[in-house]
Write the structure tokens for this entry.
Amino acid sequence: MNMTMLRPKLHFTPRKGWMNDPNGLVYTHDRYHIFYQHNPYSCEWDSMHWGHAVSEDLIHFEHLPIALKPDEEGDIFSGSCVVDEDNLTGLGTVNSPALLAFYTSHHPVTRREMQCLAFSRDGVTFEKYINNPVIPGKDYTAARDPFVFKNIISGGYSMCFTTEKSIKFYHSSNLINWNETGEFVLPDFAFQGMIECPSVFFSEGKCVLLMSMVIPESEYNKFPKGIKPHNRLMQYLVGEFDGNVFTDIEVNEEPLLVDYGQDFYAGTIFNNVSETVLMAWLGNSDNAMSVPTEEEGFRGALSYPRKLTLVKTSDGYRLKQEFYTIQTDDKVKKYKTGVIKDSFIEETISEDGLKATTNVKYSW
């Protein structure tokens, strides 16, 4: 990767063009695969493709050819990947399982959104399933971002995707034919608004539902004290999954935020990894176009990967986050980890934007 003055050395960035949501995070063929929302033609959001890169350590990346391109059905919106280990689809073999990419096809004129499937036998080149969509659009104009995960209760696989104000759940025994099993609506204490990019993981016998939100100003009063309100965020809920649908089990005084900043969005987790590892877009649709990297030929970056677990605190179950480090030798340093009980951030930025002073206080 060519290093330039404004290109991060640690965070993943596209080789060129625009990038926003991470998609299809998965470990297969001895490498971590990162797909992402990508416009290869300019540094502006448009004509969504799935970009593709691989890494052995999630620090050093190799860019691969574009995985998925728009077609007559529309752009390629966000989604997820799973390895078809048992060859349920018949698109690979047991000894050489196919990599399945589930994505939303978004028509730019009608705005119809459908859940579709593509597959790869080598982890690099993809072919779209001939009988797409696997879940038709019905009357939805905001049905997107399918996340597919193993159903540890009923067997087979489940899929969740958003319908703007709710999250739909589907089940399949073969990863091709899907049946609706339930719908989850946000509880009152959570942030309300447009839901995007849901994902699910299990920890401490509970189910955690992650999601990104676009919220109206009327929801700003729900932000914790000391946090500047903003309209794009990630929140999570702790509950149970009965094999059909998620149910929240904790009533909290305020929403549970994954991150307190406004430039941490559309996060999703890796499939086929023993631990729960999250990466998110370090951007915000309101200000991403002002990031001054266009002259260097790219715009967009992803967060450093975070390891997620659930811990029991005096306030209930809370998300514990640590930097995810792939230990290749015995020199990896150990740092104190845990749940931050309270925090306060004070930041002063000069008018010209060239200087910033930040004070961070936290207690364990």
User: Anything to note?
Assistant: The two ends are 39 Å apart (CA to CA).
